Amino acid sequence: MPKHYFNTLILIDSYNKPDRAIDSNNAISKRLKTYGVKQSNISFQIPLFTKDVKGLYADSNIIANHHLLLTGTFMSLRPQFEGIETHRLVKRGIGLRYIYNTGQKGVWFFDIAPFVTKDMTYQSKAYARLASTIVYSYNFSDRFNMRGGITKSFLWGNRYYLPFIGLRFGRLDRVNLSIQFPRSININLPLNNKAVFSIYTKPQGGMYIFSNQDSLYFNKSVPTFHFTRYELNTGLRFDLRLKHLNFYTALGFSTKNNITFYSDKHNSSAVGSYNTYFYTKKLPSTLYLNLGLLIKIGKTKSIYNNRNLYDAIDLNNTMGLPNRNAQIPVPAKKTSKTNLESIQDLIDYNDF
Prior knowledge:
Blueprint: E1 8-21, H1 27-32, E2 34-54, E3 63-80, E4 89-101, E5 106-119, E6 127-141, E7 144-153, E8 160-169, E9 176-181, E10 184-190, E11 195-211, E12 224-241, E13 245-262, E14 277-283, E15 286-297, H2 307-319
Antiparallel strand pairs: 1-2, 1-15, 2-3, 3-4, 4-5, 5-6, 6-7, 7-8, 8-9, 9-10, 10-11, 11-12, 12-13, 13-14, 13-15
C-alpha cells in the first residue's frame, strides 16, 4: 500500500530568452554589449514521512496529516554578455518542507531551503544563502481560499523579507483564479483530465556569486561580487498530463528586466536587502520560451475530493515545482450516452 499522499517528483526545466543590446554610455555597459539568458534546472521532491491522525472522537471522519518532504534544486544560469566570456553560475540546494493538514479547514506550511551559488567558469568560492517560508492556508470552501505568511525570497534579485498573501477563487480541479503574492498570478483552465491551459504572470530572478576575472569591478584584487537579475514573466502555458510524465511549454513576454552588480564587502553587514552596488541597468522587454518535463514516481494514497489535501498539494507546488498541480485529478467531462431511438417505441403520443 502507498505510504504517502505526495508523489516523488523530478522536474527538468529549460528557460531561454534572446540577447538584447545594452544601450548605455556607461563603461561597464559598453563592455558587456548585450544581455540574454540561458537557464536549465533539475529539481526534485521526495516524501520522507507521512502520518495520519484520526479525529478527537471515535466516530469522526476527520483525519489530520503530517507530511515531511525532502527538496532539492540544481540550477545552471548562463547570462549572455557578448563582450565577455560566458560565466556558468550554479545554484545547488537541499531543503526540508513540513506540511500539516489540520483535517478541518486549515493547512500549515513550513519550508527551509539552504543553497549555495558558485561561478563554475572560474571556480569561485561557494556562497551560502537561505530561503524560507511560513504560510497558513484557510479553506472557506472548495471554491474560496485565503493564505497569509512571510517569506524570505530572492525572486526579485535581492534578499527580501516579504509578506505572503494568497487568494484563490474556484475549485483546484476546475477553472480557478489564483493570486499568490509575491509568487504568481494564474488563471487555470483545465481542458480535460489530460490537458491544462493557463494564463499567468510571475517574477523570476536570483542572486549569484560572480567572478571578477573580467575586471568588471574597479578593484581588480576583489575575486567576486554578487550578480542579481529579475524580470516579470507574463505568458501562456500548456500542460499535457500523462500517467507518469507531464510535459509543458510556456511562451510570453519578459518585462521589468534588471541586472545589478553588488559589492560583497560593502554589503557584508547589511541586515535586510543589499543596497550598495557599482552597476545597475534596466533592460528592454523581450520574448521568452520555457519548456519542462515532470517525472512522477510511485503511487500515492487516495486524495480524491479531499479539499485540504488538494490545498496542501497546491500550496506545495506554489512554493516548489511549478507543475500546475499534476497530482490533483481533473474530473472527466460528462457526456450523454442516451440513445433516443432505443426508447422511442416506449412513447405513445396519444398519452399526451
